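Sample pair:
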Amino acid sequence: MAIIHIHEQLKTMRNEDTRIITLYRGQKIGNEEIEKLRRNINGLISFNSFLSTSSDKEVAHMFGSYEGNEETNGQTSVVFEMKTACNLFSNISEVAEYPDEQEYLFLVGTTFKIVSVKKIERDRKNYWYVQLIDTTDDDLNDLKAIKQQLLERLAISKGPFKLTWGRFLYNVGEYDTAANHYEKWLKDLENIDDNELLATIHNDLGAIYYHKKAYAKSNEHHSSAFAQAQTAPFPLCHSVFYDNQGGTRMKLNEYAKAFDDFRRALGIEQRRRPINELNIGRILSNMGTICYHRRQYRMALRYFQQAFERQRRISLVKSDELAVTCNNLGNTYIKLKEFIQAEKFYSEAYKIARRLLPEGHEKVKSFENNWNESLKRLENMNANTNKKVPVKVLNPTERRNSNISISQIEIVT
């Protein structure tokens, strides 16, 4: 309650002045965080605590400086420069312990756009200088869409806070912490007779262990979830359990069982109203993946094409699965030796992923590699035949050698 009280107090201290001023903040952050900032130029950054800043740049340098080397214990000196409207922060200089520091405080969750991340030398020491600006209306609209997607994934209005917290940890990639959280919760519920809650926890644990590549353990929890789900009817759709169990069985190479799970999930989703295009598209794409692994390439193509038609209707903020399906279509066309079609879909996969994900993201690299490989094939075709195929030539320095690999739709929670 104390944090809420401080938050409300700060809101009352803000004024309506919309002039733009520059504030600074110095601190030490992990090297991996610097890399994230560098990969997300023009992206958004939100601070998860009250943000103390100063109008005095020297104060920021004081807080961000090191006595010794530039990097200590995996951390680096950083100075943030923030150009912001006066009505977005509170001037607390008069009530602060050190008035000379000219302190200004932003509320929890304040969001900025990253303009630049540069390494600068000062007094024969290097530090990182990060320029931030206010978010525009377009930025905020994108942020609202992403926030809504996250809320949908968390199902924040459904179930206890422990469930929301576990799903938050899962969605930000803290799989070890999320697994520990759920396992401890399960022990606390040993004697409870709540099939719905137990099914949900086992289902989420199955998804977490799937991402930890512990597929046998993932399968155990999905089986437990399914058993709990069948003992009593409840609002959570059974297609989720079939879908997740199918994803795990696919990783265990149990393709026949996995295909049957996806077929059952698809049947349930097709009977639901309103129809969820996202779920149906993902299931169809997973069925295509199984056919691909079983070398049934024509059948795989049919399922991927159906998934593509569904997923292309979905808004951009949810198109990461469309990018995966485009990549899988490219893989399938390669197997069928239809190289021009393969290049078309590899190109689309890369462009979609590039719009949605940071430059260094694993999927972006994978899709780019596959696209480059397809371009090389077309170049070789041109060299060996008189018929010229149009080729979009990339900068040679951007090309990387890699094996083409099937990409799998993310398991749903």
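Strands lie at 20-30, 44-46, 51-54, 71-72, 75-85, 90-91, 103-106, 111-122, 125-134.
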